Amino acid sequence: MPARVLQVNTSPGGVPKRAVAEAWVGREGLSGDAVNHPKVHGGPERAVCLFSLELIQALQAEGHPIFPGSVGENLTVAGLDWPTLEVGAVVEVGGARLQLTQRVEPCKTIAGSFADGAFKRIKPDRVPDQTRWYARVLTEGTVRPGDEVRVG
Asked: Which residues contact 101 (CB under 8 A, 6 or more apart)?
């Protein structure tokens, strides 16, 4: 079964980001989405944030109150082999093409998604295969829940 977008998430700033029916993915990010701290989030090299449904479920099983969108990801993806992702990988999703630029360093704004505020649980230098990804937009387009996700 191919990987798919479970949820497309936006917010007027901050977390959680909430599910939307679709969003235009432009060079600076998703339509209807904003960030509170543009020096560390957003911009062309951090236009889209992706996270894995399976990792969210594993964190829930550990007792964390995380849910899709709660850690600020724009695209919650199901079925993607997360440990195989690397900087430079091209991800096709819906009508957009993205290129992974860096793993996302967590900050205290997502502490509410973790038991005892342990947001460093998804810190890239501790668990590089269990963290979020930032991506630049190579080709703009619309994304929707259910869209296939391909890495290649």
From this structure: 45, 46, 87, 133, 134, 135, 136
> What is the SS3 assignment for 16-70?
CCEEECCEEEECCEECCCCCCCCCCCCCHHHCEEEEEHHHHHHHHHCCCCCCCCC
CA 112 from centroid of its chain's CA atoms: 17
Other residues' Cβ atoms within 10 Å of the Cβ of residue 88: 8
Surface-to-core class of residue 37, CB atoms within 10 Å of its CB (0-12 exposed, 13-18 middle, 19+ buried): exposed
Asked if 99 contacts 11 with a C-beta cutoff of 8 angstroms, the reply is no
| Per-residue DSSP letter, 107 | -
pLDDT tens digits for 41-76? 889 999 999 999 999 999 999 999 999 999 999 999
Instruction: Return the structure tokens found at 108.
Output: 């205290």
Q: pTM of the predicted model, to two decimals?
A: 0.97
